[in-house]
Design goal:
By secondary structure, the chain is mostly helical. The chain has three helices and no strands. The longest helix has 179 residues. The N and C termini lie far apart (214 Å).
Length: 265
């Protein structure tokens, strides 16, 4: 097929008509080949599928048959096994329940006997223990009473002896103090202070009246009282029972005085 010339329109029409004819022939042949190929391919596929479906149907039929036989045999075996297992379990449970009942009955009997014997032993032990405790407590109370009675008697005797000793000591001490102070007042009679002399002062040759004995006794008693409480004080300082010299002076000045006779010149 030659190429058309550049300036001829008829040449182009002839070329197109020839090109379209060639294309139509090529397409008709190509479509025929494709149709034949597709028809053969569909035939082959249909045969393959028909054979494959047949093989699958046969396989499935055989597999279903085998499964049905296996399941029927398995169910039969399982039923027999379960029936035998249930029988064995029932027998085992019946025997186990019988053994448990017998064991529990024997165990309850043993426990009752043991508890009865244990309660008897405990009661006897407690009764003996209570008896021993009562005897021990009674003896202990008796010993305590005797000890307390002896201790109270000893303390009473000790206190009575101590009080007697203290009374004798204080009586002797007060007697010594009174004698000492009476002698001291007798020796110190002339140089008594002016504030301790009874009555008004009448001159240098004044003589103390006979009422001095009463004043001396009061001063001796007060001074003994003060010395006793000074000796009882641990700090050396007199307490509320101690009398100061000013208090002694006031006591001596407050005593009643008798008039005295002045000696002749």
């Amino acid at each position: 097929m030659g190429a058309p010339s550049p300036g001829g329109v008829g040449h182009c029409r002839g070329f197109l008509s020839r090109w379209v004819g060639h294309c139509r022939g090529f397409l008709s042949r190509w479509v025929g080949h494709c149709r034949g190929f597709l028809s053969r391919w569909v035939g082959h596929c249909r045969g393959f599928l028909s054979r494959w479906v047949g093989h699958c149907r046969g396989f499935l039929s055989r597999w279903v048959g085998h499964c049905r036989g296996f399941l029927s045999r398995w169910v039969g075996h399982c039923r027999g096994f379960l029936s035998r297992w249930v029988g064995h379990c029932r027998g085992f449970l019946s025997r186990w329940v019988g053994h448990c009942r017998g064991f529990l009955s024997r165990w309850v009997g043993h426990c009752r006997g043991f508890l009865s014997r244990w309660v008897g032993h405990c009661r006897g032990f407690l009764s003996r223990w209570v008896g021993h405790c009562r005897g021990f407590l009674s003896r202990w109370v008796g010993h305590c009473r005797g000890f307390l009675s002896r201790w109270v008697g000893y303390r009473r005797g000790f206190l009575s002896r101590w009080v007697g000793y203290r009374r004798g000591f204080l009586s002797r001490w007060v007697g010594h103090c009174r004698g000492f102070l009476s002698r001291w007042v007798g020796h110190r009679r002339d140089p008594l202070p002016e504030r301790l002399r009874p009555g008004p002062r009448r001159g240098p040759g004044r003589v103390v009246s006979a009422g001095q004995s009463t004043q001396s006794r009061v001063l001796v008693t007060a001074f003994c009282h003060c010395l006793y409480w000074r000796s009882r004080s641990s700090s050396g300082i007199c307490g509320s029972h101690c009398l100061s010299l000013a208090q002694l002076d006031r006591m001596s000045s407050s005593l009643p005085q008798k008039p005295t006779a002045r000696p002749a010149a």
